[in-house]
Design brief:
By secondary structure, the chain is α/β, with parallel strands linked by helices. The chain has helices at 17-26, 77-90; strands at 7-12, 30-35, 38-42, 48-53, 70-74, 94-101, 111-119, 125-133. The longest helix has 14 residues, at 77-90.
Length: 135
């Protein structure tokens, strides 16, 4: 059997939907669905991410049980740097001493794993990462 991730759904404060729409379209995703209470975006392949109105007033804890973070892969180190500039313009701080290279996660010694990590307004931990040949 061959499988892939079809979609992910995140519960958010509906007031934050514009943050996700702007971020994901900046990263090259396109809008599939946009209505009050639900936003769907696709990567051009077989994967989509959906942001729906939360049903409970709780705070996300990415260090607790469940999903720790979502990583969006990009095509170059320059794309990660462009994301850092985008986040700075939005007032979103980078976390965990990123952007940085993580050689321990690279596919091979001639490759790099270059990342930036940040938190969304709903405390969803997001990583934008390039994996491939060093620039």
């Amino acid at each position: 059997m061959k499988s892939h991730i079809s979609h992910l759904v995140f519960g958010i404060n509906p007031d934050n939907a514009a943050f996700y729409k702007d971020l994901m379209t900046f990263l090259g995703w396109h809008v599939l669905y946009d209505a009050p209470g639900m936003l769907g975006l696709a990567d051009g392949g077989k994967t989509s991410i959906w942001f729906g109105a939360r049903t409970k007033e709780v705070t996300n804890d990415y260090d607790g049980p469940g999903l720790n973070h979502v990583a969006i892969g990009v095509g170059s180190q320059a794309d990660v740097d462009a994301t850092v500039a985008y986040l700075q313009a939005q007032g979103v701080p980078a976390l965990f001493e990123t952007p940085r290279h993580r050689a321990e996660f690279a596919y091979s010694p001639s490759d790099t794993y270059y990342q930036v990590m940040f938190e969304s307004p709903d405390r969803i931990l997001v990583e934008v990462v390039y994996q491939g040949p060093k620039a």
